[in-house]
Amino acid sequence: MHLAFLRDYHEALVIALARTVPTLERGTVAEVTGLTPQAVSKVLARLVEEGLLEPAGVRRPALGKPAAVYRLVPGSRWAIGAHVTRRELRLVLTDLAGTVRASAVTPLPDDFTPDQLLARLADGVTTLIADHRLTTPVPDGGADPSRVLAGVGIGMIGPLDQAAGTVRGAHRLRHWRDVPLAELAEKKLGLPVVLDKDVTAGVTAEAWRRGPAFRDAALVVVDAGVGAGLWLGGAAHRGAHTNASEFGHAVVQLDGPLCACGRHGCLEAVHERAADPAAAAAVLATGVVNLLQTLDLGHIVLGGADLLRDGEIYREAVEHAVRTQLPGAGWLTVEVSLTSLGTDVVAAGAAMQVLNTRYGLPDPAGLRLPVSGPG
Amino acid sequence: MHLAFLRDYHEALVIALARTVPTLERGTVAEVTGLTPQAVSKVLARLVEEGLLEPAGVRRPALGKPAAVYRLVPGSRWAIGAHVTRRELRLVLTDLAGTVRASAVTPLPDDFTPDQLLARLADGVTTLIADHRLTTPVPDGGADPSRVLAGVGIGMIGPLDQAAGTVRGAHRLRHWRDVPLAELAEKKLGLPVVLDKDVTAGVTAEAWRRGPAFRDAALVVVDAGVGAGLWLGGAAHRGAHTNASEFGHAVVQLDGPLCACGRHGCLEAVHERAADPAAAAAVLATGVVNLLQTLDLGHIVLGGADLLRDGEIYREAVEHAVRTQLPGAGWLTVEVSLTSLGTDVVAAGAAMQVLNTRYGLPDPAGLRLPVSGPG
DNA sequence: CGACTTTAGCAACGCTGTTGCGTTAGTACC
DNA sequence: GGTACTAACGCAACAGCGTTGCTAAAGTCG
């Protein structure tokens, strides 16, 4: 029965709108979604039933019957996000509105194993559940639909297979070849787990918080390396082998300095050899303009611990480059900003990916083509 | 009534499948689409009714009742594509299968005006309609649904506003500032018209012919400039201002030679100064690897008159670069090929964009957000 | 207090895909 | 030559989505 797709899609549309604006009304929702007022009534009723929305009084128009006003219940659904780096595990608890409600950092042992990570992850998740009195999703949702923990998201460095939830081999971590991390974590935690690359998770955080106007964008991150999480056409772009975002290994200087990846003049290699933050920022800015030329993005968000240390310098350098290096017609508007989530972006984004799979816009089912060759 | 979306979506799914495989059966379609056999029966019946499919005998299984076999009727729908360059107008007629059935080239006057283009376009379209006895779409499709011309696609250099169908200002053509070309052509021709950037149209041609396995790909074109049409996640990527694909103006050599665009070391500038085709191909290949690092594409298609002149040299250079410059794990497979459509890619793609809007996968309606500031 | 405006919501409906089940067209076996 | 079996077909009833039509509700205005 594929009518379920329509229902989920329209519910997701309303939730997306509710995240963006303070209050909702039947009329305005109908206008924005293109649904009839009657249909909106039904959708709103379902969402109130599920506890995602609540009535918020009435608006009295100059003439006529008062309109019922609704608003999102941010505390009705929660998600936990984990950011795994080579040194530490950062956990974040977010609500349905995308607000970070708690965060915690645990150091990880040198060259840690999957089991070591899973143990610390389970510890942290258990603590968060207890501290915030979260409900785990009930099989047949008869129970109280509030404070429900939707699942756990994990953002980490690649390469990894996002669809399968498998880490192919984290750079400079020996125990991480073909680890089915999502599956292992689901078993250990008893919760749905979503795995993704760090920067892709990060850009999801920005998208979830900014709403539908954020259609084509990149989160450019500098943190012991350079990467760019891509949000294209209103969805995360992961690529053919879910390995997109290795933006730092694009060459910006032919015959430039040798990079760890074996090529010469990668953005990352040139960037890390810059004399000072201003020069480094200028190099990154050129890379960002390259991205804009190729992809025509509307928003550039900057993040990552190393970048945020000199955040304003980077932001200004990128904004300047955008203004001066792009064929600056009036219609080519690009918004450049620093992430409002600081060093929590990736963890927060991982959490929001969980919310996004459940309460975001679903993809219509495509063709399940028989796979020909092996991977 | 949004059930129409489901219907169109499933019909488009079946058409996409029919384009890819020689014959269809109820059972296999059901398996691939996830629909029940009954639903597939209804979809197939509708498509036969519309003339898009026809019965093609039966397949006799080892046991049981023979299965009804269907196939696409390529001649049931047609589209005309136009490729506008600074020197000439290239017209192409394609059928529903994406096969080029006719093509014609007309020179254009120096610094031609919109009217001059429209006149030649109308001439060419009229000739093609007459020569191939095409039907124009009937308002209320009671008539014979065969040999229907779905519309006309136009591919040309930007910048342009694809959604509005407006040319913002074609490079080095003085009479082309804010010309509502799609609207003008629709009036002149009495047919639906779709406008898009040349390389974006081109990649649509490849996608339409290759089917759903072609999910993340680029058409890299060298033709008095370097560009890349992007096909991401199964759809054309146009970007926030429908200005994506200016890949040639990504910097690959900081402090390199001055480019026409004002920056230094653009791929295009470095490429055109290369000593010989082999060196030029190597430069382009590096750019392609940059694209792969950032976007993780599964297919790279090469095209454009200047590139195809030394096609094999370019193809080998790119393939070599992909093998040696990417972190060559076994799972990172990239298929590199020359376009099978030669210099007709863009025109053919423009035609297929028309077919794609009518018979391709529809986008679910999003939120019609009120626009805030002016452009 | 009645006319008017705006919003809400019940009830019937249309259309989609689904389910259940009988039918059809063939092979295999005795 | 009949019976069992298999695989695909297709009618009919159904469920669930949004839509349409209409009535009711809750205000303001004169």
Automatic annotation (TrEMBL), chains A, B:
Short name of any one Pfam family annotated for the protein: ROK
Highest taxon above the source species: Bacteria
InterPro entries: ATPase_NBD (IPR043129), ROK (IPR000600), WH-like_DNA-bd_sf (IPR036388), WH_DNA-bd_sf (IPR036390)
Coiled-coil spans in chain: none
Family: Belongs to the ROK (NagC/XylR) family.
Full protein name: ROK family transcriptional regulator
Protein species of origin: Amycolatopsis heterodermiae
